[in-house]
């Protein structure tokens, strides 16, 4: 059975996360919209995009300040960590975008497992229903994270912003105007 501790991609995944300074939200965004993930990776918001286009200085920029206040946690920012029982929790307002939020929560558990050498559990806490959703860290979930990290690396090195498509998320996305999906 594949566990985080015997996962063949463990070292490469960790290296990629550290090198690209990936956070949980990267793993959420990449599931939802590559355009949004690209903007987040390059730390570009709508106002900055206007400025860059105007001056012709658009370029990739993957370096952004990282929160090292949780040194030893790789700048991770899960909502709650139960150190005693090895469980990491991520709060979500609603139960929507299940796979995206599951990958975000799973990412935290994987990184904690790599750091501590122990298996961790991941739980998404849905605030609107007060329900807890266990994210099973099986081979399929680890493969999903591995593929997401690979796609994030490709996007980090990609100069052009990917095409966007109108999806339900657009209505609550801060890039809605930029994408023209108002
Ligand atoms: S507005 Fe829609 S297409 Fe544009 S980045 Fe946001 S989610 Fe993606």
- Helical residue percent? 40-55%
Shape: globular
Q: Strand fraction band?
A: 5-15%
What is the spatial order of strands in the main beta sheet? Answer: 1-2-3-4
- Heteromolecules bound: iron/sulfur cluster
Q: Helix- and strand-based class? A: alpha+beta
How much is the radius of gyration in Å?
17 Å
How many individual helices? 7
Number of domains: 1
> What is the number of beta strands?
4
Sheet bearing the most strands, described?
Answer: 4 strands, mixed
End-to-end distance: 46 Å
Mean pLDDT over the full residue set: 83
Low-confidence stretches: 56-71
Order of helices and strands: HHHHEEHEEHH
Q: Can you describe this structure?
A:
By secondary structure, the protein is an alpha+beta fold. It has one domain. 43% of the residues lie in helices and 11% in strands. It has helices at 10-20, 24-32, 34-41, 46-55, 98-116, 139-156, 176-179; strands at 80-82, 87-92, 121-126, 131-135. It has a 4-stranded mixed sheet, with helices on one face. The longest helix has 19 residues, at 98-116. Mean pLDDT is 83; it is low at 56-71. Residues 33, 35-36, 164, 167, 169-170, 173, 175-176, 179, 181 line the site of iron/sulfur cluster.
């Amino acid at each position: 059975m594949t566990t985080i501790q015997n996962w063949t991609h463990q070292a490469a995944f960790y290296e990629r996360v550290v090198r690209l300074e990936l956070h949980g939200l990267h793993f959420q965004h990449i599931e939802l919209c590559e355009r949004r993930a690209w903007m987040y990776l390059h730390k570009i918001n709508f106002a900055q995009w206007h400025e860059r286009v105007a001056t012709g200085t658009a370029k990739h920029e993957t370096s952004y300040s990282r929160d090292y206040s949780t040194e030893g946690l790789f700048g991770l920012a899960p909502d709650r960590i139960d150190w005693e029982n090895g469980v990491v929790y991520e709060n979500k307002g609603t139960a929507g975008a299940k796979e995206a939020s599951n990958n975000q929560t799973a990412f935290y558990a994987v990184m904690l497992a790599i750091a501590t050498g122990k298996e961790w559990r991941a739980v998404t806490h849905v605030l609107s229903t007060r329900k807890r959703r266990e994210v099973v860290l099986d081979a399929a979930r680890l493969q999903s994270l591995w593929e997401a990290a690979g796609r994030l690396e490709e996007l980090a090195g990609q100069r052009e912003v990917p095409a966007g498509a109108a999806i339900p998320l657009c209505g609550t996305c801060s890039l809605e105007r930029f994408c023209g999906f108002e």
